[in-house]
């Protein structure tokens, strides 16, 4: 039979090969995601710090504005006192009336000012809890960042070790492929990793979903390695 002269490979080798590739994809993903997760956490902490600084500055500004209004109130109160003194020493009825009108106007202005100050104080008091909230959020964000960092660092060595171990297993497994098939497979694997291979699912390539001709399928069943004509993946049948 002519088929006996074609290279064959155990189905287990192909399945194992693809399993190792998938595990490597997963591990390399974890390895690369770790530092990204740390960076994302650090950016989060920075953003929360900025938010806390913002509410602290806002509170400072609110208090400064109240101080300014209170100073204005005191200045006007002093002015009213001075005017009252002047009232007693008025040189004429006309002058007396001018002082009297001025006192009335200043008293009215201060009454408005007092209302404003009370309103500002209420707003400030309602604003104060925002500081505590922002501090709490910042603390939680920092704690989370620290635990993510610890977790990533604790796993990094394990993940790296696993990658080295699996890459070793992969090399051993690849040696089991017949030479011409191996070369073609290796070129694909170098570029595409686990996408160098695909299961046959319902008669189609599991990678690109193109139908595999029946004769190719039966060749594969007779353990002759074949690549998908459309996407170049090395094909195999999954376990039933
Ligand atoms: Zn394909």
Structure report:
With 240 residues, the protein is mostly helical. Helices cover 75% and strands 4% of the residues. The chain has helices spanning 11-88, 93-127, 129-174, 179-192, 214-221; strands at 197-201, 204-205, 234-236. Strands 2-1-3 form a 3-stranded mixed beta sheet, covered by helices on one side. Helix 1 packs antiparallel against helix 3 (129-174). The radius of gyration is 40 Å and the shape is rod-shaped. The two termini are 28 Å apart. It binds zinc ion. Residues 198, 205, 207-208, 210, 228, 230-231, 233 line the site of zinc ion.
Summarize the structure.
The chain contains five helices and three strands, in the order ααααββαβ.
Question: What's the helix and strand layout?
Answer:
Layout: H1 11-88, H2 93-127, H3 129-174, H4 179-192, E1 197-201, E2 204-205, H5 214-221, E3 234-236
Parallel strand pairs: 1-3
Antiparallel strand pairs: 1-2
Helix pairs in contact: 1-2, 1-3
The structure holds zinc ion.
Zinc ion binds at residues 198, 205, 207-208, 210, 228, 230-231, 233.
Determine the N-to-C terminus distance.
28 Å
The global form is rod-shaped
Oligomer category? single chain
Specify the biggest β-sheet: 3 strands, mixed
The helical percent reads: over 70%
Tally of individual domains: 2
Which strand order do you get reading across the main beta sheet?
A: 2-1-3
How many β-strand runs? Answer: 3
Distinct ligands, ions and cofactors found in the model: zinc ion
> Mean pLDDT, nearest integer?
95
The CATH C-level class name of the largest domain: Mainly Alpha
Radius of gyration (CA) equals 40 Å
Order of helices and strands: HHHHEEHE
| CATH architectural label of the largest domain | Orthogonal Bundle
- What CATH calls the topology of the largest domain is Helix Hairpins
Give unreliable regions as ranges: none
Enumerate how many helices there are, as a single number.
5
Strand content: under 5%
Q: Decide which structural class fits the backbone.
A: mainly alpha
